[in-house]
């Protein structure tokens, strides 16, 4: 419940709409409660005395009350909808903003599909709790209390029937809520799993078609879909038990009232009109109790969703700027001082161990190593995508933790291993690197990245639409656009994480030549091909998270067996008839 109360703080300016909506509910309820009183007078006075004018007079009053009640209800619906959907929008914005602040380690705690569910389905559940539950939450207690009060004023003896039925209904509601509360949490988790299956299948749709695995994916989706159906059926099987319980209680109450009330009328202890009005209050009270039970069920489900949303909002951000951050990065010097790193505190082994590394400003450094040697992990510590577990990473002579995160990441341009382009035009994607870039700067960055040639052939040039995720360009073209986007940042440190793997060697050589023209920019190149790094000032060879060797191409080729093996396998075909090829 605390999570739900906290989320109510996000109502903000919509709190006023919620209060106005509550006011109109009270007005609507008051008009509805007056109608049975008017009906009793109409029957006992107008019908009994055959006074047509009195009947018409009371009929007009009842009609006016009904019309005003309708208008109040419509006004409530308008303000409640604004409050509910405005509240939901603010919660989604807060969640999305929180996710943007997350470090990679924070994102490791949540599946992408689960975050999507928390931003959509869980927020919708909260909106429904307000939109569908606020009216009965305000209306039902008032109807219940005033209805019992009016009925008690009409006849105290008959009203005791309510006090006999209420404990039974309360017990049924308690048992239902206790049973379904944990089931709603499970239901949302199953929705996560279904979204994960859909997301994975759509992202990998080309691989699915290439391997003709559509039927297999349909089977996996059917399993997830069946799990959601079974969980929903089981959950709502218990949820609807409150309806027959309330209907049974209501009909028993009606029968008892008709029995005892009829006897009172026959013995002249009660007027027919009073019994009719009393009966109207009985229906209103019982209906209010049933609506109130539905509110509890809505609230129970919304509490599960509120807890899931609060988990996102309460996730402590792993990486933040210091209280008084340094905003200026002087140069591209990089120092690793006895750095070790592991992704989880409880992990047995370090991904990086005892890394001692010093890179001067303006140097070009190549990084080679087998799969799993922690090449990407090494460079991700530089812009603080992760923090070192032990030791210190420095940029420009200062610990990276002393810098403002935004200033540090502006000074470090990184082209990640997985290239990402966004829906929109090429121009819009390039401007991510520098929103103020001129037309000339855009084309210059494209030239250096080797993208100018294919962009000139496109009818719309930079205004060509990329489609969702850049589906309208090839893998190599996507890589070159990502490189151009990073170059527009004009960073002091430039990191290429295997970013030219999809381009041909001739294009790669042109990109390398263009990068050589950059002044005072430290360049780190992670690559699988020796030819990509052999011209670097220093080449690092990583093995099992440690720097195995470092030096120039000629030095490593002369003395390091791992580098020799990589070179031989790529440049001269490795061993020939059991003899190592000459270098």
Assign an overall shape: elongated
- Name the assembly state: single chain
CATH architecture of the largest domain: Up-down Bundle
Per DSSP, the total helix count is: 20
Termini gap: 72 Å
What's the number of structural domains? 2
The order of strands across the largest sheet is: 6-7-8-3-9-10
State the share of residues found in helices, binned by percent. 55-70%
What is the total tally of β strands?
Answer: 12
CATH class group of the largest domain: Mainly Alpha
Task: Kindly describe this structure.
This protein is of the alpha/beta class. It folds into 2 domains: 313 residues, ABC transporter transmembrane region fold (Up-down Bundle), CATH 1.20.1560.10; 218 residues, 3-Layer(aba) Sandwich (Rossmann fold). It has 20 helices and 12 strands. The strands form 3 sheets. It has a 6-stranded mixed sheet. A 4-stranded antiparallel sheet has the order 2-1-4-5, with no helix packed on it. A two-stranded antiparallel ribbon has the order 11-12. Strand 7, helix 18 and strand 8 form a beta-alpha-beta unit. Helix 2 packs parallel to helix 6. The longest helix has 50 residues.
Task: Describe the secondary structure blueprint for this structure.
Layout: H1 2-8, H2 15-49, H3 52-101, H4 104-107, H5 112-119, H6 121-154, H7 156-203, H8 205-210, H9 214-239, H10 242-266, H11 272-314, E1 334-341, E2 352-359, E3 364-369, H12 375-380, E4 390-395, E5 398-399, H13 405-411, E6 412-415, H14 426-430, H15 439-448, H16 452-457, H17 475-487, E7 493-497, H18 505-515, E8 522-526, E9 538-543, E10 546-551, H19 553-559, H20 561-571, E11 575-576, E12 579-580
Parallel strand pairs: 3-8, 3-9, 6-7, 7-8
Antiparallel strand pairs: 1-2, 1-4, 4-5, 9-10, 11-12
